[in-house]
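Structural prep section.
Before we set up the soaks we want a predicted structure of the protein with WQD in place, mainly to decide which crystallisation condition to try first. Input record follows.
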Amino acid sequence: MKKTLLITWWTWYIWSHAVVAFEEAWYKTVIVDNLVNSSINTLIWIEKILGYKPDFFEVDLRNNEKLDEVFKKYNFDWVIHFAWLKAVWESCNYPLKYHDNNLVWSIRLFELMEKYGVKNIIFSSSATVYKPSPLTPLPDGEGNIIKLWYTETDLTWDCSNPYWTTKFVLEQILRDLAIHSWFNVMNLRYFNPIWAHETWFLWEDPNGIPNNLLPYIMKVATWDLPYLNIFWNDYKTIDWTWVRDYIDVNDLVEGHLFAYSKLDERQKIKVESNEQNHPTPLYKEGINLKWAFETYNLWTGKWVSVLEMVKTTEKVIWKEIPYKIVWRREWDLAEVYCNPNKAYKELWFKTKVSLEESLSNSWKFYSSKN
Ligand code: WQD
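Run finished without errors. Recording the tokens verbatim:
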């Protein structure tokens, strides 16, 4: 009997790759989305890859009645929660919009999960919950730059923008549900997915002016935009521009599959050991929380500056990307990347898609549009 997964969808197209990956791995997926920030056409592209359209319901997660009907219709085994707003600058301009969308929606979803006994969730969290890194890394005394990266046990705190706050709070809510309500949570932290599906049928193609670096570069390459604005260059990297760890979405979704398998394996052990029906929640028994709430960084472990991204793109697509160094973007961080070793050791997760391959897939889509 196929396991049935509820996939909540909103602004990032990562969910569409997850639907394809989980359907191809013989799971049944059911998608809910309110289509405010997304297009129903994505389902047409998924159908081109799978040969059929997954079940889809146009539901606003705050509409408890309609979402309840979806839970009634299916006996979900899992939920993969991707539905949130994610633009840092926008969250600073509209904090309550982010608190309402990201927090209220999620709590409505968790309430229905509890009502229907759906206790397994993969939550796509973010590295934004880590303490913001110093703008200039500490040299090691010989003038070399020490890579500063966060491990899962590092403190999370002081979220200096509403988007980060919502991610941090949702992690705490899910941790509470794991301890007090027998939820099984796989908490995945990542930051900069870049993507186009290898079939070129799925991609990130935001309406209007893109916020994120890669789609903006691609729109410059197709002359939809005149040049790239590089937000400031005051960081001690080889070219002074700011750095990120860009993970290809095909790797990222594989990380979700590995995380699913890990928690599913634990779930089986719990049921066999009758722990699932444990008379008291974890906190009273001091049972290792690791069995109910586990965090993994899904990262490449590499470090790419903005200019390196521009130069690599030029090399891959054989086109110049004009740019200007401009002001610093509000709330931007100079550096964000994390230690990927725990996912490698415990999930056997290691990224395989190179930056060049990611850029080539993206370009095949963008160039095919014109
Ligand atoms: C990357 C780098 C910019 C655009 C995004 C999401 C956020 C979070 C992390 C999950 C930065 C520079 C960008 C441009 C530029 N995801 N840049 N010119 O800022 O890391 O945030 O990923 O939690 O939700 O928004 O990604 O692609 O916007 O920027 O110079 O036109 O490129 O300064 O250094 P960011 P990004």
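Observations: DSSP finds twelve helices and 14 strands in the chain.
Flagged for discussion at group meeting.
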